[in-house]
Amino acid sequence: MAPSGSRSVDCWRVLYWIPVLFISLIVAWSYYAYVVQLCIETIENMGEKIVYLLLYHVLFIMFVWSYWQTIFSKPMNPLKEFHLSHSDKELLEREDRRESQQEILRRIAKDLPIYTRTMSGAIRYCDRCLLLKPDRCHHCSACDMCILKMDHHCPWVNNCVGFANYKFFMLFLAYSLLYCLFVTATDLQYFIQFWTNGLPDTQAKFHIMFLFFAASTFSVSLAFLFAYHCWLVCKNRSTLEAFRAPAFQHGPDKNGFSLGTSKNFRQVFGDEKKYWLLPVFSSLGDGCSFPTCLVNADPEQPSSPSGRNPSIKSAGESHQFPPKPLRESQSRLLNNGQSEGSEDRDKRGTSNPALTIEKET
Fold this sequence. Notes:
The strands form four sheets. Strands 1-2 form a two-stranded antiparallel ribbon. A two-stranded antiparallel sheet has the order 3-4. The protein is built from eleven helices and eight strands. By secondary structure, it is mainly alpha-helical. It catalyses: L-cysteinyl-[protein] + hexadecanoyl-CoA = S-hexadecanoyl-L-cysteinyl-[protein] + CoA.
């Protein structure tokens, strides 16, 4: 027999699918209301009917495709080098003193491309997944795993939105907004006829009325959400980073990963323009390391945009973190003169302040 604990977990996981089921039912009803009740039963002009049906199905297919990809794209695990080996796990568990644990983490992290820190200046460590967190990676309590470039956990897709599916999520918002706007615009004249008694007294007029209300309401909420995420893409920030700026050696820097609007956009949608509008994966990089605009680490030079100087390194805290070579797709983002300076700084690495173990759930 299965333990009662596992049965309760399975029950909760089933409940997580309720929002997805609700959206699916709304979409299925809207298809029936628009195609059958509006286009087939109500619209009499054959040319208008064909055009509406053709455009509607194009938007419907792209909307469902992007929604499906957002739901079923599996989160990508951090690369193996970020996970603790079996011997390191045992060594870390045996140590009771924080100083000893810090030394172990320093040794493991010294060759990894990790630039972000906790707010206290420590290397970000997940004691549930037993790994050193890559930059922009966070542990999701709902998924119970670390998610690369985590943006948020979305109940409407029952999945974490992160590096693996952020492009799909953006396209889902775009196509769902276009879908709702198209339905609202084409249904408007028949919605007006409903109130002026211009429609036959059939069940179609009730579908037409509720279809307009539903589509227009969703259009407003989707417009605000889509505009917000477009702003995040242009700034190269996640939702989590918008609320709490990522911390580097010199302190929190909300623009630490921003490379300019064009490069920020290509980091999510890729270099191939033919894939930008298609829900196929084309994002640049591996999700574990990202080009940064790190400020000059020299205390004599101006540091962060806010004018803060980096912390002066003390003895025993001069460990360097040379970055792992970026994939070719990432390196192309650093071709201009401004980015070359930041790449040179990446090659020098950043110093590692005193470490403590961060426990995030």
